[in-house]
Amino acid sequence: MDRKKIFENFDDRDAFIKVSTPSPVDGSQKAALNRKGNQFFNEGKIEEARRVFMTTGYSDGLSRVGDFYKSKGRLLEALKMYWMAPDKNKSQPLIEQLSYLIQSMVNDSGRQEI
Predict the structure, then answer these.
(1) Interatomic CA distance for residues 35 and 101, integer angstroms
(2) Which of 37-45's residues contact partners 24+ apart within 8 Å by CB, and which partners?
(3) What is the sign, positive or negative, of the torsion defined by CA atoms of 45, 50, 53, 56?
């Protein structure tokens, strides 16, 4: 099964963002932005931190935002952050969990029609 094709269904809902270009900022700007993103994160300004980390492609920051989302039960948003990081150690268990959930829903839906 091609995971990429499955996730393409979410594009119109801003569920996943494809990142294929390098960061638009140079090294010193990136470091300064990452420090600002870390400051936002530590102050509890998660969305501001997320935007900074997405701009710079800072994988550790993206993974920490994913951890925050996961702790709040926002699994799809957590998966998005882990996917962008990329952090397969954290994304794979979520993919399996969400796959099981979808499979259960499909199976339950089939039983109700009978």
Answers:
(1) 37
(2) 37/61, 41/65
(3) negative
Which CATH architecture fits 24-113?
Alpha Horseshoe (1.25)
pLDDT digits (tens, 9 = 90+) for 36-86: 999 999 999 999 999 999 999 999 999 999 999 999 999 999 999 999 999
Domain residue extents for the chain: 24-113
The amino acid sitting at 102 is I
**3-state helix/strand/coil string of the chain:** CCHHHHHHCCHHHCCCCCCCCCCCCCHHHHHHHHHHHHHHHHCCCHHHHHHHHHHHCCHHHHHHHHHHHHHCCCHHHHHHHHHHCCCHHHHHHHHHHHHHHHHHHHHHHHHHHC
Distance CA 112, CA 102 (A): 15
Name all contacts of 35-43 with Cβ < 8 Å and 24+ positions apart. Answer: 37/61, 41/65
